[in-house]
Amino acid sequence: xxxxRKVLLVEDEPNIAEAIQFILSRAGWEVIxxxxxxxxxQIARRLQPGLVILDHMLPGLSGIEVLTAxxxxxxxxxxxxxxxxxxxxxxxxxxxxxxxxxxxxxxxxSNAEIVAEVRSLTGAGDIAGRAGAESGNVTP
Amino acid sequence: xxxxxxxxxxxxxxxxxxGMRQGDLSRAAGISPSYLNLIEHNxxxxxxxxxxxLARALDLAPEEFSERDPxxxxxELRAAAASFPGSGAEAxxxxxxxxxxxxxxxxxxxxxxxxxxxxxxxxxLNDRLGHDPHLSAALxxxxxxxxxxxxxxxxxxxxxxxxxxxxxxxxLNLHQDSERLVDGAEALVSWLDHSGEEAxxxxxxxxxxxxxxxxxxxxxLPDEAAADQIQGREAxxxxxxxxxxxxxxxxxxxxxxxRTALAAGGDPALIAARFGVPVHAAMRxxxxxxxxxxxxxxxxxxxxxxxxxxxxxxxxxxYGAACPLWPLFAALARPGQPVRAVVEMPQPGGGRFLCxxxxxxxxxxxxxxxxxxxxxxxxxxxxxPPADQAPIAAGTTCRICPREACPARREPSILGTAPAAxxxxxxxxxxxx
Lengths: 140, 433
Known about the structure:
heterodimer, A: alpha/beta, Rossmann fold, five-stranded parallel sheet, B: alpha+beta, 434 Repressor (Amino-terminal Domain), six-stranded mixed sheet, 17 helices, 6 strands, elongated
């Protein structure tokens, strides 16, 4: 699978992660889920995904800290990062912008919105078929 | 501004309302009718003594005339007019209004004060919304749960060919998140109700806060200072008690000895016997060692869960009653007798667990009083297949259990679609789990 089809999802809320994983897998992306901030940047370095979806509030290391680490590493410096935030506070968004977030989604978002953002950020066109969830990419 | 005009006008109104003529009132008050006439037409000041006599003659308390400072009332009316510059209120005639319609004038002044108070309250709330860490955490929790609900509901509605396993899974997630939403909303309402009190204590239940903290630190023994990170005062107290007990357990069952005992089979009763400690202490040591994959639940005689360390596939419910088929409750009924059973939790996400349960009874009132029971159950994942007995097909709580025909069912599940023919009638007192 080419890297633009690979998405690293860093999200500590298991049910949100499961839903995003399901939606994106069905739409044809390979989703690798990680629930902690601590070693997220190293995982991104190893996987070199086409996109990182990064939650703002994470245990271990905050989303901003992960983002800073991603941008500091030449291997991941250019990977698009979609930042998820449950806060509408402008200062959080400004901090994420300064740290190099590519785009933002404010919780609660719709499934269509996240698919559209991921599609736009990975430069992936419509992925025909409904491979993914039902074909064994993820299992309940 | 002189107070006289206002008092005169009001005096006249009260006299007319009382059905008295000037002559009657002046006689009763011991002043001349012409003097009263001048007072009433705001042409003479009135001394406190005369005012008192007039008030008494009108059968009114002197405060009726003197309690409100008309000057202050007029100032308040002018302030009200100034607060709404476009209102067209005749600020220059505020004195007249206060004199002629003191009730209405007071109402306007009171409303003005009330509005100013509301504005202050709104400003304070705005400040809290922007800066209060507890509110921020509560809102974050609500938004997270809401996000999960929206995404999950979207999948359930928009995915036509969703497999039954996934359907069950997402129904379960919806249920969990709806519970979180309820918790979050309750916490928020409670927080708003207790605006001046210690807000941290109402954001989550102290036990939940303790367990969340323990989950964050990996259920192992932290530094004593780490308990200070907990925001809620009650949860901090619980954490300190938990730490004290954990330290006592470690002192009784040191790590090296525990390792040897675990290598020899890891039976909490044998560990307890070897170290001469209660079985519950051995269970706690097994559940709270670094890297331990064992879960632990503790309940009291009412069946209320006092402590929950979940393991993947076996999550004790946060609210509502747990599955009555858990060996924990069999042990609760038989203090001092070991209960060992393999439990199978429903798929998806379930699996088999070896459950070791033990109940201890205490007599804090001696023979004279009731005994107190506390049962604990150690949950060990991936046991060897039991040779002697079939696993118990249990669940978390009826509400989210797919075992529709279970004889132990208390209430219908939200997961099943088939009619729950085998289910007993729903108990009205049962709280949804």
